[in-house]
Amino acid sequence: MSWRGILHYAWKSLLYYLLLAVAVYLVHDHFEVAYLSIPFNTVTALSTALAIFLGFKSNSAYERWWEGRKIWGLLVNYSRAWTRQVITMVIPSEEAEAAAVKELQRRMVYRHIAFVHALRVFLRLKHAYNITAQEEIYEETNIYTDIQAFLQKDEFEAFYHKNNPPNFLLELQGEDLRQAFKRGWVSDYRFVKLEDTLVEFNNIQGMSERIKNTPFPRQYSFFSRVFVFIHASLLPFAFVSEMGMATIPVSVMISFVFLALDLVGERIEDPFENKLEDVPLTALSLTIETNVKEQWGDQDFPVKQTTQEGIVL
Asked: What topology does the record note for this protein and the membrane (predicted)?
């Protein structure tokens, strides 16, 4: 992590800590206002309680982030399985149908790539309660036009106006699968296996939407921010009578530690918001696209992401 990135998100709080510590020191030592000092034990008790609270918050937030990463790991695995199944299980009943089957396979394979990218865009659309005034250092573009190259023109037009575009693509996959079954290109057993894989994509989307649409309880975010502010505001008063000028750097450093703990949990609690710390949906989508194209025999792989200051989105 670069200090530029850290300061981008923490500079306002650090500036407050610094100005407060300087003000307390000047008033206490230069103007000799002794009653500004408070017992150190008061802050010690608050520090202990706050550390436990922030630790619990960070652990809970990380569990949400890690669940999101595991879900998209499943998407990688099932995407490879789906491509293999489409290529090996959809078989023409006659030689004359080979070209039609090949076109169906191509359509289903590339439509799946569209589904992966569409799910990425869909999950990164922000809800009103997650929009903040915080400006991100770097954000990935998040538009559905990235999917256009993988769909037929009429499919994309219909897709673009749907309330849940990724789910619409799975419906199209199911319809093509049904047509293949009717024409004898897929047996009963193979139809069931392919349908089971489609259901897994529904499950993956549903699990991702559960995290996306169920925000981390706002009490944790709100009160942790309030408690960190109170704690940082009391620190200089506890140190000033014993440490003098050293109060300034010591109180700022301790306040920064608690601020960092709070920000760690806050930044990862919603893992699909197109933030630096999110699950890297774009990188995973490009991995899936590359794998699927390679299985199909298409060497036109997507360009790898260029990292900026170690950022992978």
From this structure: Multi-pass membrane protein
Q: Is the dihedral of CA 141, 142, 147, 148 positive or negative?
A: negative
Distance CA 75, CA 113 (A): 11
Residue 229: is it exposed, middle or buried by C-beta count within 10 angstroms (0-12/13-18/19+)?
Answer: middle
Phi, psi dihedrals of residue 311, rounded to the nearest 5°: -90, 125
Give the chain's end-to-end CA distance (angstroms, integer): 15
Burial track 133-166 (b if 16+ CB lie within 10 A, e otherwise): eeeeeeebebebebbbebbeeebbeebeeeeebb
| Whether the predicted model's global pTM rises above the 0.85 cut | yes
Q: How many Cβ atoms sit within 10 Å of the Cβ of residue 114? A: 24
pLDDT score for 82: 97
Q: Which is it for the CA torsion 193, 194, 199, 200, positive or negative?
A: positive
pLDDT tens track for 178-218: 999 999 999 999 999 999 999 999 999 999 999 999 988 88
Convert the chain into a string of H (helix), E (strand) and C (coil): CCHHHHHHHHHHHHHHHHHHHHHHHHHHHHCCCHHHCCCHHHHHHHHHHHHHHHHHHHHHHHHHHHHHHHHHHHHHHHHHHHHHHHHHHCCCCCHHHHHHHHHHHHHHHHHHHHHHHHHHHHHHCCCHHHCCCCCCCCCCCCCHHHHHHHCCHHHHHHHHCCCCHHHHHHHHHHHHHHHHHHCCCCCHHHHHHHHHHHHHHHHHHHHHHHHHHCCCCHHHHHHHHHHHHHHHHHHHHHHHHHHHHHHHHHHHHHHHHHHHHHHHHHHHCCCCCCCCCCCCHHHHHHHHHHHHHHHHCCCCCCCCCCCECCECC
